[in-house]
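Suppose a colleague, Dr. K., hands you the sequence of a protein chain of 655 amino acids and asks what its three-dimensional shape might be. Before reaching for any lab equipment, you can write down a predicted structure in token form. Begin with the sequence itself:
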Amino acid sequence: MSGGAAFAHRRPFWLRCLYVTVAACGLGPALLAGTAGTAAASPRLSTATPSWVQVAAASTPPAAFGAVSFADPVTGQTVLFGGSNGRTELSATWIWNGATWAQAHPATSPPARQGAVAAWDPATSTAIMFGGLGRSGDLADTWSWTGDNWVQLHPAASPPARTAASLASYGPEHRLLLFGGFQADHGDLGDTWEWNGTTWAERRPSSSPSPRQGAAMTSGAAGNLVLFGGLRGAATYDDTWSWSGEAWARLQPAASPPGRSYAAAGYSQGSGAIVVAGGRSAAGAPLSDTWKWVNSSWQALAAGTPFPARYYAAASPDPATGQLLVIGGHGTGPAPLGDQWRLADPTVPFWRRVRTAVNPGDRFGPATAADPQTGQVVLFGGAVPGVGPTNDTWVYHSGTWQHLNPPTSPPALAFATMAYDPATRQLILFGGLAIPLATSGETWTWTGTTWRKLSPAQSPPGSAGAVMADDPARGLILYGGLGTTPVGVSTTTWRWTGSTWAVVPSLLNPGPVVAAGMAYEPVGQQLVLFGGAAESIGPVDGTWTFGSPGWLPAFPRDKPVAHAQVSMATDEADHAVMLFGGSTTSDLGSQVVYSDATWLWSGQNWRQLSLLESPSARSGAVLQPLGDGSILLFGGSGPGGFRTDTWTYGRIAAP
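The predicted structure, expressed as tokens, is then:
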């Protein structure tokens, strides 16, 4: 988290809420503007079994075997270097951003090579590449990738020249360990070296795997390093070893893959395990099976689409998705392969940025809802810097934002609330803040093409910052909100019947909170409300559920810290409620502090997700389900100003 705009604390609570609202409307200090990107469709999702999926991209690296790839978590990219096209070694650097390849043109570059090894070094926040086979023989040079350039290092000590070694990080400090390889003058090697951030040091353990080349070596999420297989002369190994930090230990798993060398290996976040795929059999044939290391044993991974047979491919996790990405290699024919494959596991959750040609731009407090009839997310109004509340209408569909011009619209509003009404199959919008500073008590409906004002027999008092969500068993439920006539925060629960509003009695309620989050949780068949700002307290961390007994407090073991302006939505794929972001105040109360955490509520407890990539810290973002198991996030306000980026959350499967 990081700090943002100052928060005025010496005013009454309701006036502080209006102060923040006024600032967001552009009548206070101006906030920084964002930037729009280029159009791209969001990925489709599935709950299928894990499958190997071919990656299609407009521009791709040339077909090659023996290239090296690594994940750059700082840039969120995969970097590919070198390889051989069967005629000569290559020296190009390519960048994969999760969707497309682009050739990089760094100021300096290593000489052409195949069979090098590379891994990310957290100690220096760079990648380290060593050795390989160059056009003049085996290499012993060490290079660092800084994110946009290669820098040759000159360590005090270095392993002898070699190709086809194994390199991976290990332990909680993620130190780099190099093992084995092949040298033309000495044959297969069995030495162990460690990189400490500045130089190499040879380790001399009491026991060690036999000399070999092309062994599969990688580490799991906890830093446990595992080595499997490899080739020595005519012998192909099927043994498994682990590195403790001081010594090698041969393991005796209950099951093992058949012996192989030059397999693709890496950690798969979706499988939660080390994965070994393909390789070269003892008979010299390319293999197509996939195995994972779980509970100290190997298990065959039954993939919906099997791994295309190959060996000597480049492999590394894709930082954008956490999925194992395999590039090129040797197949059954004489020519190298040029295709790319990823292990798509439907249990992999991740955020992915969607670049759109246009978007609703800088704003805070728009009303949004998903319309399952059209598959669209509808956005209305919000506070625009320098303008104040607006009354424009936008829809998001299939990776694109579109500005609509309906014949009728509600007045300019910020902090209105909107939700889908299954009884009328339309979106219902209520309340909001208008200029001059007054709250609206109007009810409007979106028909799919235009807005229509409703005239219910009974209606809640005008309010801004209320929450509303659809409970399939009880209808649209509205709670809270800040009113100006009279001034105060509502603690009344209202239900939309399809034609009017009705008070819902409840012995308990979440109290006078504004700017909370609320969404429907399918497993418990109830609404879940979290956080908000409470009078005389500020941001709170209470979790409440609304069902047949009315409002009840929940007491989860884990939960987000106290936040207001959180974003919440039903996560259809997980049958849960997602919460993202929010804002609170610093310990000294002088700054707003924003969150970039993603949480799931599954009925009894909150669980924070560990994701490789995430939208930046913000509050008040749009968060809506897209109807295909994915979730849309747009905009909000964070440190320095408004956000205009669009993201989707979900699990990638075959397109």
